[in-house]
Amino acid sequence: MTQLFQSNRSTLADCMPELVATARGDLKATLALVNVKLVNVVSGEILPGMSIAIKGSRIAYVGKDISHAIDENTIVIDGKGKYAAPGLLDGHCHIESTQLTVTEFAKAVLPLGTTGGFFDAHEISNVMGLKGLRFMLEEARTTPLAAYMQVASCVPSTHPGLETTGAFIGPEEVAEALSWGPDMIGLGEVMNFPGVVYGDDRMIREIQATLRAGKYADGHFTWKSDDWRLPVYAASGVSGDHECVTKEDVIERIRLGMYAKMRQGSAWHDVAETIKAHTESGIDTRRMMLVTDDRSSESLLREGHMNFVVRHAIAQGVKPVTAFQMATINTAERFGVARDIGSITPGSCADIILLDGNIADVDVVLTIASGQVVAENGVMTTTWEGYSIPKEAFETVHLGRQLVELDFQIEAPIAEGTIVAKAIEVVENHVDTRERKVHVKVDNHHVNLDPSDDLCKMAVFERHGLNGGHAVGILKGVGLNIPSAIAMTVAHDSHNLIVIGNDDELMVKAGNLAAEMQGGVVMVIGDEVTSFPLPVGGLMSPEPFETVALQSEAISHALIRAGCSLNNAFMTLSLLALVVIPEIRMSDKGLVRISAEGIDIVPLFDPVV
């Protein structure tokens, strides 16, 4: 029977008298877990025969015997020797990347053992500014999750000369958002790392506003780990970074006092390499965190969330208790909230999961959030009053015109012959790309791509109704081998309209259909159309989690039918306009190169000699 969740995450100061009275037995627990093997992430031990007394939303007592805190009104759950661990925390996550609303995200991950996280809503912020962040924060507050939000640091990710976003966030907006409450935990990933290193006024003042508010700044540094500028970046107060892809990346960040976030998203598989900082180099794990960053709804359905990441880390040779620390107490300590979440200790919020079988399997069979059973055996057992998303969030795609085939022509500086052009090469399971020089044929001043070279076109259209600009470039490695096209308004981070394909007519059709349904993904193969509507900001669907996951999966299957065999191809393609990740990207302004010297727009063609 589904029960109504009572939102009651009281502060420790407010409920402390009741907790103390319950701990000594004068008051009685509302919920008790008995006969469990306690995964103590504070001491790094597993303690058998333990019990936990909960009063309201927090833990009152942990010990061998809690009989003094129980009476006939206490709900008692016999753990029957199962493992009891703290609820899992995602230390860096963009909810919008799941294509789910916050409500549906919570329903998806709570049965998987995720009870909280630190969410950087910079996707919706790039579309709607602080209004988008505000509605996601308000929706998160209605759910059982211990949800902490970060204000986007980079809207735009660099500056308006490189891309067009739907909004702008600067130091004043950062200060305002951080005043909304203690669950506004800090500044989201500072992707304009060159701006920080070289003293860009906007970036410096945004970090200052964060530090003055007593909150935390997250990083995004993609220069090499031995670059002399990493310590410069760390000197700014940016104290955590998820752009770690090697063990050296992890080691150098930790040596500088930063938290290293090891990422296992749907399309970025970095844990196997980064975890070697511990398993091979023996680096202390106190400042290592496991995160997802971007995880699709279909990945949540088929693989899991943080339970999957913890299981994967254990499979790489990490001790189970250590892996749990990386997804609980380490994460809570990084953000200064370990008094509230991240451990099963007296006074902490009662966010607890029960695990069946071998601890390494991370088989979550019961989830308690804020002192209430919210999921059991993979199914939600509680519900809550729904949140009404503002109407303006459904009206964000403003192309201002119909796309035509002329929009997808690439004009060359020669009339006929062959010319050298820069192509963006996709790298499977990684966020980075490669810059490749390719020889392309030119007919009547226009590029004519040869499908046998595994080349296709990519166009980016400004969709916020600001300037109507667009640019067209060349992709390599997508694998399309029959006439096809995909259009999407999920295009990190400015979320303009991306259209990728090898047939101009189909690209027109896909792009116009995506705009007509106010955002989402459209895959066109000949006469076949597969649609995935995402009307909330052009990023998220209001539909139930399972529906969204199946729609996302349908796009994946369509891509495969068109010849694209990349793992989680949709998510990989959605990052091709993210102009802060090496080596080369495409925005509505043109081709953008990210190098050790900085970030610049570069010409598509090499000079003609």
Automatic annotation (TrEMBL):
Amidohydrolase-related domain sequence ranges: 84-374
GO BP annotations listed: adenine catabolic process
Keywords: Hydrolase, Manganese
Enzyme Commission no: 3.5.4.2
GO molecular function ontology, one term from the record: adenine deaminase activity
Catalytic activity: adenine + H2O + H(+) = hypoxanthine + NH4(+)
Keyword Secreted: no
Domain of life: Bacteria
Cofactor(s) required, per the database record: Mn(2+)
Annotated ranges, domain Adenine deaminase C-terminal: 433-595
Gene3D superfamilies: Metal-dependent hydrolases, Urease, subunit C, domain 1
Family (UniProt): Belongs to the metallo-dependent hydrolases superfamily. Adenine deaminase family.
Entries under HAMAP family matching the protein: Adenine_deamin
Protein name from the UniProt record: Adenine deaminase
Lineage start: Bacteria, Bacillati, Bacillota, Bacilli, Bacillales
